[in-house]
Each structure stands twice: as C-alpha cells, then as structure tokens.
Amino acid sequence: MNTVRNNKRSAGKLIKSLAASAACIASLMAANPAQAVDFDGERVEWVVPFKEGGGSDTWARFFAPLISENLPGKPAIVVKNIPGGGSTKGANQFQRNAKHNGLNIIGTSGSTQFPYLLGDTRVNYDYKDWTPVLASPTGGVFYVSPELGIKSAAELTSLRGKELKYASQGATSLDLVPLLAMDILGVDVQAIFGMKGRGAGRLAFERGEVNVDYQTSSAYLKKVVPLIDEGKVVPIMSWGVLDDDGNLQRDPNFPDLPHFAEVYEMIHGKKPEGTAFKVWKAFFAAGFAAQKGIFLPKGTPQEVIDAWGDAVEKTVKADDFKSRSELVLGDYPQAVKGKAVKAFNAALDISDADRKWVRDWLTSRYNVQL
Predict the structure, then answer these.
(1) Phi, psi angles (nearest 5°) of residue 106
(2) Coil, helix or strand for 258?
(3) Residue 146 near residue 230, CB atoms below 8 Å
(4) What is the pLDDT of residues 5-56, one digit of tens each?
(5) What is the 3-class SS of 17-76, one letter each residue?
(6) Is 235 helix (H, G, I), strand (E, B) or coil?
(7) Would you say 50 and 81 are in contact if contact means Cβ atoms under 8 Å apart?
(8) Alpha-carbon distance 136 to 295, whole Å?
(9) CB 285 within 8 A of CB 346
(10) How many Å separate Cα 131 from the centre of its chain?
C-alpha cells in the first residue's frame, strides 16, 4: 500500500512539475513572440532570365521599386539579367543557387514556361519547387497587311492558297501560339525564323517583308494601333482571356475583336474541340493567361511567402497602380497569392499524351528536335 501511495505522490509531483514548465514556456513565448519578417538593410536579387530592355526586363523593373516599398524593411530590389538558352540558363541557375530567405526571387515568362511544358532537355528547373506570389497575364492581337484584301476575321478563309509570311522567333517560343492557331484554322503561314524578338517581327511587317503578325497587348497598343489609323494594319482577332472557369472570353482591351475560339467557330461552324485546340489552350494559358510570374524558391518559410504575398497584394491594390501600369501591363487583373498559385497550376498542367502530340507536331511541321 505504501508503494502505491508513494507512486501516486510521485506522479502528482511530476504532473505539477510539467504543468509549471508548460506555464513557464508559454510565458516566455508570450514575452518573446516569433520574430517578424524584416528585410531592413537587405538587398533582394531578382533574376530575370532575359537580356536587358526586353518585355520581361521592363516588367520586372516596373514592379521592383513598387514592391520594395511594401516589403517589411523596404529592401532594395536589384534586377539581375541572366539571358541564354531561351531563358533556361537563368532559370537553371536560380534552381541551383537561390537561397530561401526571401532575398532571391525569379521572374519568368512564357518563354520559360514553354520549354518546361515541352520537356526540353535544357530544363533543369522545376516549377513545382517554386511558389508564385504574382501571375501577370497579357493578351495578343493578330493582324494582317491591307494588301491581302481582307477586313475581318470572317474573311480569313479567303487567305487559303495565298503566300502568307510571318516573322518568328522560333517554333518553341511564344510564337507557338499563333503558328498553331493558324494551323488549326487551316490557314497556311510560312514562318521565317531568326527574329530576336516580337519587336523585330513587327519591324519586318512594317517594311513589307512579311504580311501577317501578332503583338502582345502592350506592344500592340503602343506600336501597332497608330498604324491602324494610317491604314497600314488590319486587326483580325485577339487570343482572348480566360474566365474563372477556364473559358475563353473577349479581351477587355479589345472588346470589338473576336477571340480565337470565336474565329474557329466562324470558320468551322462549331465550337473548337479535339487535341489540337486543347494543346493550343494549354500553351495560351502558359504564354498569355499567366505569362509572367514572380516565384520564391523551394524551402522558403511560409512567413516569408506571406510577407511577399502581402507586399505584392498591396502593390497591385494601390490607388494609382492602374494608371501607372496600363502602358506596361495593359488592362488585366493581376493574380496574387492563392490566385497566382491557381493560375500557374492551370498554366503548367499538360498531359503526357498532349506533350507528345505537340512535340510530334513541331517535328513534322517545323523539323524541331527537342
């Protein structure tokens, strides 16, 4: 009996001791809360895997000072350009070397997403390892020379059999979207590869060396719309935008232009379907609907991710953001936090069968070997 009483006394003392320890720990935690994220005096390195002066570089340099103002401690954000390999060089370096302390981010574009989707052997990065905090959409407009004699998308079929030339960066660049679109519509376009950017393609159009072209929304608004007034351009269609259910809708920047699915229905008499359209839509999502994004590397603590998400959200919700961003971004809603994650999950989802289909199409149509 004495042994039982002693055991009970010991157990009671242990419980009281543990309770006291727990109370002490709780008190210490209350007195010393987890340290908040603070980048005061730090420098953020923003990798842009493209050369200076291009669309992605312009986009990053527009956002950098605005986001800096909203990050804890207002750190300087320095853009580091690492071009090469169609943006795979810089993305590979980020995958290998980025630290997960919130001071290393990367800004990618459709030109980074496409090699990933295609299974390009140069790709040593994995989007599944990264966390997006911003997805920037854009759109695009396809247009033709007035010398072709058409005035609207409804007349596109009259171009069949005519010599159509398009100045392209390459079949696996963002130009995959217009090239596949024309193929789906049954309009044969000769691609002239080797352009160093869509700006170079537009200049080739202006010189009369090619007679069809497309530009992303910001370039179209700044550089092409003035040519319409001069009678040098006939706008045909936009690629469209995706709604919350993933359906194509008219681009709010170009409400008078039909989107690609509408043009398909004009020509074929039915809504688009089948593998070719599904693949087109996948690459449209990766190249336009979620064209550019800011990512943090694998292993970044949640509190750091949250700090970045809050800073980006404050940036795009600022009263003057729309007026300051319109010429750079167009009139498109910026997706932040969970919406950015959702956008890239959709944009980077392609089945093995669809990947094989597009690789085979690139090989047969343009002799591309991946």
Answers:
(1) -130, 145
(2) coil
(3) no
(4) 444 444 444 444 444 444 444 444 433 333 589 999 999 999 999 989 878 8
(5) HHHHHHHHHHHHHHHCCCCCCCCCCCEEEEEECCCCCCHHHHHHHHHHHHHHHHCCCCCE
(6) strand
(7) yes
(8) 12
(9) yes
(10) 13
Measure the CA–CA gap between 117 and 354, rounded to whole angstroms. Answer: 10
231, 146 Cβ separation under 8 angstroms: yes
Residue tagged 């990798």 (tokens): 47
Neighbours of 320 (CB within 10 A): 8
CA distances from 124 to 86, 87, 108, 171 (A): 13, 12, 14, 21
Question: CA-based Rg of the chain, rounded to a whole angstrom?
Answer: 26
Q: How far apart are CA 286 and CA 96, in angstroms?
A: 23
CA proximity to 335, closest of 323, 347, 324: 347
pTM: 0.81
Q: Which two tokens stand for residue 202?
A: 């537009």
**Six-digit token pair at 216?**
């992303």
CB atoms within 10 A of CB 152: 14
Between CA 294 and CA 309 the distance in angstroms is 10
- Which phi and psi (to 5°) does residue 240 adopt? 100, -175
Of 188, 219, 189, the residue nearest 206 (C-alpha): 219
Length of the chain: 370
Per-residue CA distances from 181 to 40, 178, 214, 220, 347 (Å): 48, 5, 12, 18, 18
Least confident segment among 25-39, 157-171, 242-256, 276-290: 25-39
Concatenate the DSSP letters of all residues of 83-139 into one string: --GGGHHHHHHHHHH--SSSSEEEEE-HHHHHHHHHT-TT----GGG-EEEEEE---
